[in-house]
Design a protein that fits this description.
CATH class: Alpha Beta
Shape: globular
Distance between the termini: 24 Å
CATH topology: Rossmann fold
Strand order of the largest sheet: 6-7-8-3-9-10
Amino acid sequence: MIQFHSVFKSFASPSEREGKISILNDLNWELAEGDDCAILGPSGSGKSTLLTLAAGLDFPDQGDVSIMNQKLKAFKGDSLIEFRAKNMGIIYQGHYLISSMTALENVMLSPVIQGMSEAKEMSVNILNEVGLSHRLNHFPSQLSGGECQRVAIARSLVHGPKIVLADEPSGSLDRDTGKKVMDLFFSLVNKKRITTILVTHDRHLAKSTKHQYELVSGQLQKIKL
């Protein structure tokens, strides 16, 4: 489902004398359909960069990233945006909800843009699945942090994606709230058999996934927690 083939990625160093900083170094890795994994590593190790490449929001310096056997760099024009919108859901540490829209409107936005005729029904159903049927018409400012993140989860799942990429989705929540939100998240992606990459610093949370990796010196090392 997700394949990295001989992927190199580097960024310019703030100091010209140091040249470029290598983030991913000849990375070869794949994740099968329906599997989930956690990627751990210290800040700056390249975890978020890996997710960005998997989403096609950036591209490797060398090598290929393929999703569903399609090389992302082969897409032309807006076709990659359309492919990502149809097949992927992305969750960040911050919920990034639109403050002027209700919970329902935030979740409806993606299926409406994609022209799905049942956008409202789909959105109501997924908000019910995350336990927010009583909060449909509330704005983000009227919701708790945990509720906002549940809306973000609903938004990422409403269109039936095949892949979900989650970047520290519970990082802004306290431990108890984060656990409840992530328990809900895993129950949904497992039930729907969605291929999932979770980036996290939380080794306890990482145990909830089938596979765990640590990103060290630009390479993913399989670990067992």
